[in-house]
Amino acid sequence: MTPSQDLAPLQVTDSPEEKFREYLEIRGEKLTEPRRVLVNHIFNTHKHFDADELVADLRESGRRVSRSTVYRTLRLMVDAGLLRELRLTNRSAYEHSYGYPSHDHMHCTQCGAIVEFRNEEIRKLRELIGQEFGFRPDNHRFVITGQCSDCLKARGRRRKLDQI
Amino acid sequence: MTPSQDLAPLQVTDSPEEKFREYLEIRGEKLTEPRRVLVNHIFNTHKHFDADELVADLRESGRRVSRSTVYRTLRLMVDAGLLRELRLTNRSAYEHSYGYPSHDHMHCTQCGAIVEFRNEEIRKLRELIGQEFGFRPDNHRFVITGQCSDCLKARGRRRKLDQI
DNA sequence: TTGTGTGCAAAAGTTTTGCAGTTTT
DNA sequence: AAAACTGCAAAACTTTTGCACACAA
């Protein structure tokens, strides 16, 4: 998994499991055992992950859920507003959306690290631009790509060595 | 293809083909016939496209280039700074980068339209945030998702009909 | 002539789906 | 009991790669 720097969680009244149950109930769908396992596992640690890592993680911890169910449930959780989907590479990555402040990302193109940050200006900008074009924004993704501080340091070191 | 709203092109001295040749020459690589066909076809019209559409377009116009070569050349053109890769869905979309001002996108989640816009604040914000985290930005992607004006109008109409 | 590139077909990688059997309400 | 869900295997998609032949400098 790529390293990730975290923000402080928000206070929420419902647990993710409750929130998921509500979403499913409204649509006449069911909070089954595999779905409970998934929602709890996912919200147990705060990190970015993809479908494959999730399957592997679960398998390791003995609570096996099939790949199909993982994919189906991830989609549900995105629709339910519990998760957000990030498309930084060919495979989709996911992160907590529920109980976590809205934020954006810096993506290190060298080591793959994902660093989160919060900035209020972006949301204002998004509304402003939407108005200008008669577009109704419901979300946004802002990803800054470049090199993270660790890689910059490492590169500095390498440069010095090169000079010897 | 998804509709797209365009900005005015920039003035550039080299043609995309020239620019591509330069890039390839530096690396001891060659501007072959299929690569010329691709670079010219792509810069002939300004629109967002994906690998599949490109293959189909070319086939239709009689200038057939194999799928492998299309994929390989797209990667080269991105590296050469001619194209930018967008990951809005599972398949990568591409747009002109060379000879076209830097800009960002609104993506309509209903009809898939891509609307381009230019806003200077975003770049400033990106530098500011980079500084704050010791991150060296080299690029960014800012995508506002929501509903475009056309879909909002259509929805308005549908709502009225629903009330009858 | 010596790489480098192309096309094909096959593989690899990610995600979706049909279906038979199972679980949930 | 009815409806929804799961796991499996197979399929669907997108993208990459090995290889024999072709081409460009």
From TrEMBL, chains A, B:
Q: Which organism is it from?
A: Tautonia plasticadhaerens
Keywords assigned: Cytoplasm, DNA-binding, Iron, Metal-binding, Repressor, Transcription, Transcription regulation, Zinc
Q: Which family does it belong to?
A: Belongs to the Fur family.
The source's domain of life comes to Bacteria
Describe its assembly.
Homodimer.
Question: What's the protein name?
Answer: Ferric uptake regulation protein
Give the binding site residues for Fe cation.
D104, H140
Q: Which cofactor does it need?
A: Mn(2+); Fe(2+); Zn(2+)
Subcellular location per UniProt equals: Cytoplasm
The residues that hold Zn(2+) are: C108, C111, C148, C151
State any single GO MF term.
zinc ion binding
Q: Which GO terms describe its cellular component?
A: cytosol
* A biological-process GO annotation: regulation of secondary metabolite biosynthetic process
CDD domains, per the entry: Fur_like
User: What does the UniProt cofactor note say?
Assistant: Binds 1 Mn(2+) or Fe(2+) ion per subunit. Binds 1 zinc ion per subunit.
Database matches in SUPFAM superfamilies:
Winged helix' DNA-binding domain
